[in-house]
């Protein structure tokens, strides 16, 4: 292994639900030679499914290299290294269909890539989308249930304090709560949780190379509560958390009314936004990241990255679903996966520099 190879981080990339567009996105992303100049990518999945995707995309010349250890990987453009997990029976396989077999396959890929990261076999992990219904269909007989990737990572890394970050270029959003009802989300707006997420936001930006992050905290209620006129969550929970963070020397502004906060963030006022609940953060980011071409009736761009913060390992992800409606058609857009890989590379480099 030469010095150039040593400087390139190993990025473990899951194939996602094989019935979705994840396998196609893996192949499309690794057709970009620049990826191999930035890192050493390793697909964690079923080699048979990746081979099928390569042929479907019109690239039968690609070599799908099956490995059962990271050391066996070639990490060379034109060769797709796959940490092969024999998970999919192609005779029973259908694109765009929810199945326990595919749900199990997606789950096992995630579990394996976490294991590789915890064992320092890969420097960072990057996930394609899984289908929650299919995964939990497979796990139900074992009495297991996960809401999604974030909860799987938290469970297998024994992490209690974590949150989701979404990023589209320099617009970054973290969340006080994500996958719960709106009623429960309001109840989760508590001083300590808001303060914890502010800390995670600050740490995340530093991992991206931002030395003094500017953090904006959104209000929960319209107009950030108008001093208690539209609710007391800002007065009782959010403002005390902001003041505690400011007392620690963090650069925090808020609570900012959400309808004006995101235009400011897009304008460069802040490095990261703390949103109070799932849709408050997701809607503005996906509005700028997902671009649909009306004339061509196709997605022009599907950009954005999903990052789980607070973990002992690095996890980035595409910021879209399994694309069951596009799977097997060769029309999916790999931009989000490319963005996720680049974020994983940046975070791995900065972590290595600190160490």
Automatic annotation (TrEMBL):
Cofactor list: a divalent metal cation
Alphabetized GO MF terms: metal ion binding; NAD binding; oxidoreductase activity
PANTHER family: 4-HYDROXYTHREONINE-4-PHOSPHATE DEHYDROGENASE (PTHR30004), D-THREONATE 4-PHOSPHATE DEHYDROGENASE (PTHR30004:SF6)
Pfam families registered for this protein in UniProt: PdxA
Species the sequence originates in: Ruthenibacterium lactatiformans
InterPro entries hit by this protein: PdxA_fam (IPR005255)
Superkingdom, natural source: Bacteria
Quaternary data: Homodimer.
Family, per entry: Belongs to the PdxA family. PdxA2 subfamily.
UniProt KW keywords: Metal-binding, NAD, Oxidoreductase
Name of the protein: 4-hydroxythreonine-4-phosphate dehydrogenase
Signal peptide range: none
